[in-house]
Amino acid sequence: MMLRISLLLMLLVQLTRTQTMSKTIIDFCSPSDPNSCGPGGKCVELSLGNRCECPSGMMGRKCRRPCQDVYKSCARWKSEERCHWARPISPFFADNCALSCGQCRNNGKQLALALPPILDNIEWFVGRWEAKTSAPYRFPEPMSGPYKEILDVQISEVPAFDRPPVNISIRAESLDGTDVHVEFGFLTSKPFHEDTGFVETNKPDSGDDLVSIELVSNTGLMLIEEGTVRGTQIRLETKYKKAMPGIYRNELVKSKRMFNLISPTALEERVVTIDSRGVTNKWLKRYKKVFDYMTDLIPTPVGKKLQ
Ligand SMILES: *[C@@H]1O[C@H](CO)[C@@H](O)[C@H](O)[C@H]1NC(C)=O
User: For residue 225, what is the enclosing H or E element?
Assistant: First the structure.
């Protein structure tokens, strides 16, 4: 009997071990980088991925995400004890149901919509940004003259079974008020280190986080850009562009752009386009942050307070 139990235990240990080995380890921080958890945060080494021990009320990479549950099912999952039994296999519940699982406290305040951990890599891009130009250059299409623009990147509802996006709404208006371009769309991200729930084999140790932006415009244009995110830089290349037929356009054959955070409240967009005549255009646009959604906290609804 004794022997059988220890055999079973050995088998279990073996099973957990092989599973841990082939799982994607997601590190939110590195103990050798004192800045990786931001001011007041401390990096804790865990077997399923390093995590930040953040100042009260915060969580995530660099401790910049307000502590809250991402999925509306967290309270139920907790009652099913998933926080507890899933812990050795996956950091999913601790990351996504941080409040229910007792990983952090939100001090009675939370974001209206939670930013999912999968979007921690573009947290710096979330915000309302404003720009004013002295030239008509603009991506994806030029304006009739110098213009002002609002680029609004906001947290969106998290779909139950799909990749969570942030939503984008852009409005550019020429300074004389005669030309208005509006675009709506989404940004989605696929971090290289992602807890897919599947065991992945032969995966390299490091790689790029992928992003894509899909936009539609009031000028009859549909656009898909794809690229990578590294630190506080997003690089994009236009992969698909479809215009409403019958409207004359100086067709772009290639376009690339890049968003760079140059300070927590300043963003730079660099664009390079090549049109069908082979003419290359390059320009730079600066935005300043006029609203920070990440600090726009509301009281946690009573009755939902879990701690
Ligand atoms: C983004 O989605 C949220 C929630 O669905 C909505 O409240 C918000 O107005 C949208 N923002 C933009 C910029 O489209």
Answer: strand 221-230
- pLDDT for 12-66, tens place per residue? 444 444 444 456 678 889 999 888 898 889 999 988 889 999 999 999 888 999 9
CA distance 125 to 258: 12
The protein residue with its alpha carbon nearest to ligand 1, atom 9, reads: 154
At 237-292, the pLDDT tens digits run 999 998 877 766 667 889 999 999 999 999 999 999 998 889 999 999 999 999 99
Between the CA of 156 and the centroid of ligand 1 the distance, in Å, is 6
Q: Please, which residues bridge with residue 205 across strands?
A: none
Burial classification of residue 228, based on how many CB atoms lie within 10 Å of its CB (0-12 exposed, 13-18 middle, 19 or more buried): middle
Ligand 1 center–CA 157 separation, angstroms: 8
Residue 230: which of 256, 250, 259 has the closest Cα? 259
DSSP 36: T
Considering only CA atoms, which of 24, 99, 14, 20 is closest in space to residue 60? 99
What pLDDT score does 201 carry? 75
**Mutation probe of ligand 1 site: the residue of 129, 167, 290 with most atoms within 8 A of C-beta:** 167
**Cα separations in angstroms, 46 against 39, 90, 134:** 20, 11, 51
The domains of the chain, with CATH numbers, are 27-114 (no CATH), 120-191+208-291 (2.40.128.20)
Give the DSSP H or E segment for 226. strand 221-230
Instruction: Give the residues surrounding ligand 1 with Cβ less than 6 Å away.
Output: 152, 154, 156-157, 167, 169
Q: How far apart are CA 110 and CA 92, in angstroms?
A: 20
Long-range contacts formed by 2-10: CB under 8 A, 24+ apart: none
